[in-house]
Every structure is written in C-alpha cells, then in structure tokens.
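Shift notes (night). Ran Shikimate dehydrogenase while the centrifuge was going.
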Amino acid sequence: MQQYGLIGSQIAHSLSPRLQNLAFAKAHVAANYALYDINPTDFDVAIQPILADLNGANVTTPYKQAIMAKLDEVTPLAQKTQAVNTVYRDKHGRLIGDTTDGKGFWLALQYQIGVLTGQHVLLIGCGGAARAIMAAKPSDVTLTVANRPSDHFDEYAKVTQTLLEQPLDDLTQIDALLNQMSVMLMQQRLVCTMIKQFCRRNKCEQRKLKLILSI
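Came back to this:
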C-alpha cells in the first residue's frame, strides 16, 4: 500500500486524512494518508525515517523551508519561492520538492474571473502565499503588489523582474484586487473596511472589478 501524509506541527485538527482517504477509496487506490505531527525540536531527527516510508506528502507550517535540505531535488519554482508544500517520488524513486501555492492561486483566480490573459491584478500585502503567487505569475498577466516598505517586502520583491516604488491611488486599470495582508482576526474588519473604502473611491463596483478579500 502506498503511503502519503501531511508533514507539519500542531496539525491534529487537520481534515486532510479524512478527505484524502475518502478520495483514495472512491478511486480504488490502495493508499493511506496520515498526519506526521513533528515537534520543531525533533524535526532533523524525525523527518528522515518518515520520508523514507512515504510515496509523497504535503508540507505545511513550519517546515516548508526546512524540508528542502532533506530532499533529493527541488523544482526551479520551489527554489525561487524558497518553499516546498508538495513532495513526490520521481520514476527513479528520488524525493522531489515542489510548490503548488502560486500555481493553485492563479488557477483559482482564472476560475473566478475567466481568462487571465491581459488582466491586471492588484495584490495588497505580502502575507501568506504572496511570494509563491508572485513567482508563479503567468507571463501574460500584469501583477502590481502594494505593501508598506520593509525588509520583508524587499526580500519578496526579489522574485520579480522589476520593482517600482510609487504611491498607489488609482485602481482604474485594475481588473482584480486581492488581499494578502497578514492581520490578526480582531483586525480583519478594519482591513476589509479600508479596502472597501478604497474601492468605492475608485468606482470598483461600476467597473465590475472583482474583489477577493481573503486568499
């Protein structure tokens, strides 16, 4: 039987095993999906025997970077984002690390707004999967990232070809606006209010601009 799982820390609440094992059963695949909840202090010792028994895995916080050194190879996209969320074995049995965060985002956005070609997307903030989103941007899409100046943002900006520093006060050329700000739950209402006010000033509703407040 093939063995798969989710590698992370404090993941006992995850519903991934229920979802994945149901999918395996429906597809008549002889496989099992389990949780590998590893304490950060034990990661270096615990991860190797776990990987040795796996056919593939998903990787979540806080190991998306740490696991890269434990694999045989990582894809160019994963190298660019410096994060791995998917591990699989190639035809030679080697463990390959990849990231689907960015690619998954752009596929989901295409589902939301239709054809991506020629679209101008505004990404507000650099939390969560922002770096992967920036790295996986389709070549025929224009992406503008708005964030306050910080070392964190400068590091993320390295995955883009150009970086222009200028104030953002006009949404007339934007087709989709997305929130990637890292905020505490208690601040979420403030963030949503701010973005909605920004959109009202730029007549987003009249222009049928897609507003996605959480990604």
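The chain has two domains: 2-99, 102-212. Residues 102-212 form a domain with the Rossmann fold fold (CATH 3.40.50).
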